[in-house]
Amino acid sequence: MKSLLNETYQLPVEAIEFYQKNRYIKLKNVLDAETLAYYGEAITRKVNEINKQDKPLDQRDTYGKAFLQIFNLWREDETCKEFVLSKRLGQIAAELMQADGARLYHDQALFKEAGGGITPWHADQYYWPLSTDKTVTAWIPLQPVPLEMGPLEFSAGSHAIVEGRELAISDDSEQKIQQKLRVTDFKHVIEPYDLGEVSFHSGWVFHRAGANNTDQIRKVMTMIYMDRDMILKEPENENQKKDWEVWCPGAKVGEVIDTYLNPVIYSK
């Protein structure tokens, strides 16, 4: 089908400036309804096929209640691959990072079930063995996300805070980071998402999501991008060691992460 996935998105200079200051941005009309319906169906089908979560919600921990999480769908399905390797989304990522190109770190579907719990405050890059902060995650709802469905929330500009970066997603991170943000001037942004609206956030900006208080699944696809020339750093925690093995197999510390799992999606 013809879609917007490989067409250029006109990103205003003001948008890049906003992102550089706040390290998140929400952009309207990035994708159209037809594209989201077509690829959303393929993503949903694959998530349902791969998902092995069989514990009832009330028997899971906070992380388990937050979402069903399925990784690297681009390796599992050709239609999902077209979506994940979209030049349009890679172009936006590269321009926001102010990099010469965007390389895939990995993708992940994040489906928050009806009645699913909060996603605690956290910063993604705690998990990543990456040498710079030129990283960006595209958060792409496959349907509109009203407030009661648990849209992504941001603490604008909070990439400046170092305290809390060492916390994995947990009850502890929710409590400690919330406490820290409460005594700062960073704006807490909670807004619904229209269909076709996509947000982009950097690896060190703090973010969370509320519970899904509807009877529908909140279906979101995400892609994590890094600078095309990103260097692998020596891991600083066990999670970063695991990420190196799983998402950057064969990459060497001090060299560009150029593996079969990390294709360049867009170059200027």
From TrEMBL:
It comes from Emticicia aquatilis. Its cofactor is Fe(2+). This is Phytanoyl-CoA dioxygenase. Pfam families: PhyH. InterPro entries: Phytyl_CoA_dOase-like. One of its GO terms (molecular function) is iron ion binding. PANTHER family: ECTOINE DIOXYGENASE, PHYTANOYL-COA DIOXYGENASE DOMAIN CONTAINING 1.
